[in-house]
């Protein structure tokens, strides 16, 4: 008997909602019967590229992301030109539309996006006043350019500048009206904004700054603007580009909690069971996002939740912006407010028209502004997201002020994401060129999706294409990862290598009935054989993978902690001067680890060392995990090995105090437990995974806290020795 599908309804046919559906279809295409309600009479299109349409560099057809054929191929019922008016969440769950349609649902996603904010200026209702938000607005501006001579654009932010550049391309004069002292004042500083203004003036754009619009003049039709200081300007077209407001009317009418946006938790749930919200209409932790990357991150998290796949909760996004105006490269990310941060690095090259500024807060990278050369944007964005220490700037960008797309492309690690919107790495882009035959940035976009959404990564995509064509290649490790070779079977019992066995064991465990979850003997990785019928090679590995590293058994690997602190009296030995010493933090950390590690299953035996400093050697650099006091706090090392082949541990990071250091080490151990293969020593796992990957994972404070928390929860039944 076929299992009846659940009914999933998406209200909103925009980028966030449809990206969520794409992810759902990848994860479990047969799970839902899907319907989409869209107020516009179009399939899903790339709203971010409307400015490209206005500027004449893209056609309306070229910005369509999902043509009508896509909906038909996936069996999705699409209702265009329909406005949802109420969500019924009682015994009969239905969405009601303005035309009288009632569409039933079991799960519902509100992805209604946002609308242009219309300021309360007298005259905004007149003909010739247009917002710049959708295809209809874009078409109206193109028609207006056929008869009008001059346009006034109210708003000197991203959208206003892109609209003004498009109007110039259409043959109109464009004057930008801004109520601040410099352009893009939320994303730029005075210096970079000045460089931007001079370049746009060179292109023909005019500006009126510190201008407060009093009213829109004209009888019936807009003829110009009157300002608070009594001055005026003439205009045949007035474009409003002063911000957006989340579309929350449907939620408000349906009893869903609304603040500025539709309030959601870390699982993107509203207060109504079964109803979720993502995209520009949603408000998460007090923030409503208006950029594509956060919306896609939300979509991915929600899709995994809807398909019952393991997923970390959504904890917010780092906001960044990139101006899409021909001939101008501008990037801004993080916190660049002068009153909130300090300057870490700043350089300006007036001859080349290049400006670079990186901000910091308490020694950690907080934000960045790039003008003229945005090739470092990907590397800097990663550092900002990870709240990296400012010392990382030297490895990310070499000498202060250096630039060059080729150099940045070569320096970027293979595994780093170039296109955050579409989850495309440097390695995938190089493979598209070297193996896939792509020879241009457009070819890479077609093959991988990179730069196909917001377009902000296009300079780096283009640089990588040139880098690959000039002989730049993947590392052997990255190439092997991209090509995904077939694993050699671990034994004759199971047709899996280590990675395949791990995935199959966990999947088989999920398939067991809940009442049988303790009966691991019933576990089947292949239909014809139970796990217990395996051999001595695969049987212990299956047990470890299936248990998730949480249960004990007599044959499991063990952990050993070696403490060496100046508090040797605490362990009944003499101190360096022959006198008994009081207990130290190093001994306390070692005792805590010793107690907790006894409760943890491990892929292989692990040794750790904790030292109170250089005068008290404990073999920190030749242990799997080493912790040593230093002037800045505590240094954490990993990957050491005292026997052949002898390996020196590598520095993972620095903790400020003993509590943070103990949790840092536990996060590292948890990462090893979750990622390593059974029987793989920590130093072997470290060599396979790579210093960069481990360091970057643990430099993400959110992920590190989650790892440490999981480790603590899984070992909480064990008493800790202080």
From TrEMBL:
Domain (FAD/NAD(P)-binding): residue spans on this chain: 7-284
Residue stretches making up the BFD-like [2Fe-2S]-binding domain: 418-466
Protein name per the record: NAD(P)H-nitrite reductase
Keyword presence, Iron: yes
Domain of life: Bacteria
Annotated ranges, domain NADH-rubredoxin oxidoreductase C-terminal: 321-387
Molecular function GO terms recorded: iron-sulfur cluster binding; metal ion binding; oxidoreductase activity
Requisite cofactors: FAD
Cross-referenced Gene3D superfamilies: 3.30.390.30, BFD-like [2Fe-2S]-binding domain, FAD/NAD(P)-binding domain, Sulfite Reductase Hemoprotein, domain 1
UniProt entry tagged with the keyword Flavoprotein: yes
Keywords of this entry: FAD, Flavoprotein, Iron, Iron-sulfur, Metal-binding
Database matches in Pfam families: Fer2_BFD, Pyr_redox_2, Rubredoxin_C
């Amino acid at each position: 008997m076929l299992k009846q599908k659940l009914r999933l309804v998406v209200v909103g046919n925009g980028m966030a909602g449809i990206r969520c559906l794409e992810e759902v279809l990848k994860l479990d295409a047969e799970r839902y019967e899907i319907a989409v309600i869209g107020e516009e009479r179009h399939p899903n299109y790339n709203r971010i590229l409307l400015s490209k349409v206005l500027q004449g560099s893209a056609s309306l057809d070229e910005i369509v992301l999902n043509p009508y054929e896509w909906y038909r191929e996936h069996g999705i019922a699409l209702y265009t030109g329909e406005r949802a008016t109420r969500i019924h969440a009682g015994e009969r769950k239905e969405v009601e539309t303005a035309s009288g349609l009632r569409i039933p649902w079991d799960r519902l996603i509100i992805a209604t996006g946002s609308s242009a904010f219309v300021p309360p200026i007298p005259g905004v209702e007149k003909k010739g006043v247009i917002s710049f938000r959708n295809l209809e607005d874009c078409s109206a501006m193109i028609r207006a350019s056929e008869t009008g001579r001059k346009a006034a654009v109210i708003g000197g932010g991203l959208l206003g500048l892109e609209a003004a550049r498009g109007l110039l391309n259409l043959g109109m004069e464009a004057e930008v009206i801004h109520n601040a002292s410099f352009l893009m004042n939320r994303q730029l500083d005075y210096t970079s904004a000045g460089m931007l203004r001079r370049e746009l003036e060179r292109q023909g754009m005019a500006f009126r700054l510190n201008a407060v619009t009093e009213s829109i003049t004209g009888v019936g039709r807009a003829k110009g603007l009157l300002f608070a200081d009594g001055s005026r300007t003439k205009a045949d077209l007035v474009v409003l580009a002063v911000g957006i407001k989340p579309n929350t009317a449907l939620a408000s009418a349906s009893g869903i909690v609304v603040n500025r946006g539709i309030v959601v938790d870390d699982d993107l749930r509203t207060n109504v069971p079964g109803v979720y919200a993502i995209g520009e209409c949603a408000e998460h932790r007090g923030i409503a996002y208006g950029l594509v990357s956060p919306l896609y991150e939300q979509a991915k998290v929600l899709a995994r939740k809807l398909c019952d796949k393991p997923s970390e909760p959504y904890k917010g996004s780092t906001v960044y912006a990139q101006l899409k105006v021909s001939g101008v490269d501008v990037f801004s990310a993080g916190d660049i407010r002068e009153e909130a941060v300090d300057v870490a690095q700043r350089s300006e090259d007036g001859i080349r028209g290049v400006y670079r500024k990186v901000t910091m807060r308490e020694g950690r990278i907080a934000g960045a502004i790039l003008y003229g050369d945005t090739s470092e944007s990907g590397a800097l964005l990663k550092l900002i997201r990870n709240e990296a220490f400012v010392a990382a700037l030297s490895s990310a960008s070499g000498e202060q002020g250096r630039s060059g797309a080729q150099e940045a492309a070569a320096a970027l690690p293979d595994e780093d994401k170039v296109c955050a919107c579409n989850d495309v790495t440097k390695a995938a882009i190089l493979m598209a060129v070297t193996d896939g035959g792509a020879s241009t940035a457009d070819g890479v976009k077609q093959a991988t999706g990179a730069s196909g959404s917001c377009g902000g990564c296009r300079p780096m995509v283009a640089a990588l294409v040139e880098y690959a064509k000039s002989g730049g290649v993947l590392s052997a490790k990255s190439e092997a990862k991209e090509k995904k070779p077939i694993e050699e079977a671990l034994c004759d019992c199971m047709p899996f290598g280590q990675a395949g066995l791990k995935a199959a064991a966990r999947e088989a465990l999920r398939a067991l009935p809940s009442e049988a979850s303790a009966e691991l003997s019933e576990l089947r990785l292949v239909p014809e054989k139970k796990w217990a019928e395996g051999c001595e090679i695969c049987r212990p590995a299956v047990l470890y993978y299936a248990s998730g590293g949480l249960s004990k058994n007599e044959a499991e690997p063990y952990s050993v902690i070696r403490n060496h602190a100046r508090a040797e009296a605490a362990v009944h030995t003499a101190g360096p001067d022959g006198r008994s010493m009081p207990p130290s933090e190093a001994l306390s950390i070692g005792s805590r680890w010793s107690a907790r590690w006894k409760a943890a299953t491990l892929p292989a035996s692990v040794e750790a060392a904790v030292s109170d400093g250089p005068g008290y050697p404990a073999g920190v650099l030749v242990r799997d995990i080493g912790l040593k006091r230093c002037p800045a706090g505590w240094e954490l090392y990993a990957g050491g090995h005292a026997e052949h082949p002898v390996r020196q541990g590598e520095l993972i990071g620095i903790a400020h105090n003993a509590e943070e250091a103990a949790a840092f080490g536990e996060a590292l151990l948890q990462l090893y437990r979750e990622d390593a293969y059974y029987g793989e020593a920590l130093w072997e796992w470290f060599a396979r995974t790579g210093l960069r990957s481990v360091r970057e994972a643990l430099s993400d404070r959110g992920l590190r806290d989650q790892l440490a928390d999981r480790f603590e929860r899984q070992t909480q039944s064990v008493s800790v020795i202080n």
